[in-house]
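Per reviewer request, we include the raw input and output of the structure prediction for the construct analysed in the revised manuscript.
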Amino acid sequence: MNLNDDKRTMCPTSAQWLQWLSDREDGDIFERRPALQDHLDACADCKAAVGEVRRFQSMLLRGKAPALSPEQRQSLEERIRLQSGTWSPPSRVPAWLLWGTAVSAAAAIALLVAQPLGDRRGEPTFAESVKAATVPTADNPGPGVPVRAVEGTVELAGADGVWRVLQGDGALKTGYKVRAAMGGRLVAAGRFEFALQPGSEFETLAMGPATAFVRVRRGEVECQVEKLRSGQRFAVMFGAFRASVVGTRFAVRQDPAGAGGRVVVSEGAVRVDAADDPAAPNAETMTMVRAGHRWQYAAGVMSLEPIPASEAAQASEPAVAAPAQVQTAGPADDNAAHAAKGAPRVTVRPHASAQPEPPLVQVHEGPVLGPRQIVIEVPHQTMPPQDNVPAADGGARGPHK
C-alpha cells in the first residue's frame, strides 16, 4: 500500500462531507463529526475542497434566475393558456399502487444514501471530485483551444511556471502566460490571432472556443479577431481598463506603471470601460470609440477626440509582418496602412505623463480619418455630427457629400 492509497482511505468520501455540510447530525455523521473536524484541520486538500463547495453554495444563494426572452415568455404563456383550457379530472388510481410506489421509492433512496458511506478504495476523495467538477481555472485549465500557427519564437508557461517554446500543435489554456523576446505571432482556435512585439507578454484569463479574455502584462500585443457570433466574447484587459470588440483588429500596450492607456480606432467600434473583470461590463464608465477617433486616459482624466491626419501620415507598415520589423515601429500607429487594406485595427498605447492634461471630452477640428460624421458617445452625453470641418490650412470646407 503506497502513500496515495493511505491518503485515499483516510479522506472521507464525498457523501460524508456533503452530509456534514448539510447539517445532518444523525446516525454515522453525528458520531464521526469530531473525527471529521480533526481531519479537516489537518488535511489541506479536504480543507480547500470544502471551502470551494461553500463558495459555490454562497454563489447559488446570491444568484438570480435569468430573465425569459420574448420567445420563451410567449411559449410559456401559450402553454399556460392551453393547459387552463384543457383541464381534465384526476384519474382514479388504486390505493395499493400508491402504497407500492411509495415503498419502492423509499427503498431506492435508502440504497443510494447508504451505499456511498462505505470506505471503498476505488472511490475518489472529496477533494478530487471537486477539482474535477469545477470550471476551468489556472490550476484546472481544461482542454483549452488548439494553436493553429506560430511564427517566431513564442514561449508558453503553464500552471507549473516553466517556460517552454510553443509549437504549432500545442494548446492555449486558461491561466497560461505567453511571451516573445524577439517578437512573434500565434493563431488560437482558428479565429484569435495574437502578434507580440519584442519583450511583450500576456496572460490568458479565460480561454475557450467561445470566450477569450487576456491581460497584457507588458509590452504591446496586436490582436485580430474574426466577427464574433452570438455568445462569443473577446476582451483585453490593460491596467484598470478593458477593451472589448466585435470582429476587428487592435493593439494593446500596457503602461509599465499600469496607470495610463490609449485606444485608437481606425475602423469599426470598440467599447472601453473601467473594469477589473473581463466578463462584467461597467455601464457607468463605458465609452464607445468609433472609427477615426481615439480614447485616452491620463492623470485621472479621460478624453475622446478625432485622429488628426498629420498623426496618421506618420504611420508605418504593420509591425507584425515579421519580428525584425516590429523593432522599427515608431510611436505612431499604423492605422492608415490597415485601413487602406480593409483590415480594421485598434491601437491601445500608454499616454505620456509629460503631455498636458486633456479635458474629459476633447474634439480637435481638422482633417480626420474615417467618415466625416463625428459621433462621440460617453455616459449621458452625445455630440451630433458636424456639417463643416475646417481644413488643415485654416480654410473652410463645404459640407461633406
